[in-house]
Amino acid sequence: ESAEGKNEAKSYKEMISTFPRVQRWSCYEGFWYFPMFLEGLMSAQDHFIPQSTDIFITSCPKTGTTWLKALTFAICTRSRLSGSSASSLLTKVPHDCVPLLEYDFAQNPMKRDRAVPLVSTHVPYSSLPKSVVSSCCKLIYICRDAKDAFVSLWHFIADLQRSKNIEPLSLEEAFELFCSGISSYGPYWDHVLGYWRASLEFPEKILFLTYEEMKKDTASHVKKLAEFMGCSFTLEEEEEGEVQKIISLCSFEKLSNLEVNKNGKHRADTSFAMKNSVFFRKGEIGDWANNLTAEMGARLDYIMEQKLKGSGLKL
Ligand code: A3P
Q1: What is the pTM of this model?
Q2: Pocket of ligand 1 contains residue 65 by CB under 6 Å
Q3: Ligand 1 within 6 A of CB of 282
């Protein structure tokens, strides 16, 4: 890292230390972040320049990002791979196929496979780098029932913390914070609403999806994704079952059972290494009911209903 880079990182750290903080989250532009990602975001806001062909995979954590990364990667690399079964998805976790704006570029802005026009981010719409918002780049957003997103997030963070011998927050404590808007990249409802409103304003630029509708009819969404990304399936491809092949390759069953995702590590050579298996838990709709009481569920439903009221979105 250059001396300039080090000074800059130090000054982001100093700025972050002055931001409101609750537990390990710091608040910036109305959203809550773990400091490491916030530093990356601030750096991206200052320096990131997209390629004009970039497509951004956007989401709040634990809403289906891994699946969406796999699908979009498989869709846009399919012609390069035709006739070969060697998709990178078989040997790398989807997060190592599609870089994360606020982590991978902050660490090394030049490190990317320029042939793959995909960048992912959890940054809320209102905090995206101006270079992204003012570009002609397309964005795909995925979100999910808030209760399932919360439960998935709690398990994910608790697993990671236990693996580092950090005592995780209890489910109840984390739930209270989530309901008051404090969670990674939360408030959850503001994250969803930011992209929802932007997708209404710029429908040709932003595709808004939900995990539930993707599960219900994956094939039509895979076709929709390809069309949106400017690489629709040809009739010939459809007849050859290309859509179904991509769905199978990216399915929870297939990916979670691959050797790399069972035993491999994401960002293996960094202090932020984690087991790939943490990205694959159950992959179901409605698992919240096995973790939260009916009262907790009703409370979060009520909050979401109130926050989304009048937006035209039901989640
Ligand atoms: P659960 O914790 O409810 O099982 P993200 O990818 O944004 O981190 O979201 C993680 C959620 O997506 C987890 O949900 C995970 O199991 C699920 N998931 C991961 N890969 C998937 C896939 N290929 N298909 C469907 N769901 C998947």
Answers
A1: 0.96
A2: yes
A3: yes
